[in-house]
Amino acid sequence: MRGKGFYNSSGLADPTAWRALENIGREEKAARVIKRLRALAARHGFELAGRVAVRDARSGKVYR
């Protein structure tokens, strides 16, 4: 059984909406990772010189 977000207001399974919400969550998580990498570099006297890309180990999607 999936979490509450998997079901619509009628109580029926809504996998399309669930996947969309899950993808938004993964994008936000990737953005937090990149922000933390920048902060870590700054804390140690460095800055990121180029574009940062992270790959989701589960889906293989690349976030920039």
Helix fraction by DSSP (H/I, runs of at least 4): 40-55%
The tally of domains stands at 1
Low-confidence stretches: none
Q: How confident overall, as mean pLDDT?
A: 85
Biggest sheet, spatial arrangement of strands: 1-2
The global form is elongated
Strand content: 5-15%
C-alpha Rg, in Å?
17 Å
Distance between termini?
A: 33 Å
The total of helices stands at 1
Query: What structural class do you assign from the helix and strand content?
Result: mainly alpha
Description:
There is one protein chain. Strand 1 (54-55) and strand 2 form a beta hairpin. The chain has one domain (11-63). It has 1 helix and 2 strands, in the order αββ. With 64 residues, it is mostly helical. It is 45% helix and 6% strand. It has one helix at 15-43, and strands at 54-55, 62-63. A two-stranded antiparallel ribbon has the order 1-2. The longest helix has 29 residues, at 15-43.
In short:
The protein has 64 residues and is mainly alpha-helical. The chain is built from one helix and two strands; from the N terminus they run αββ.
What attributes characterize this protein structure?
mainly alpha; 1 helix; about 5% strand; 2 strands; two-stranded antiparallel sheet; about 60 residues
Describe the secondary-structure layout.
Blueprint: H1 15-43, E1 54-55, E2 62-63
Antiparallel strand pairs: 1-2
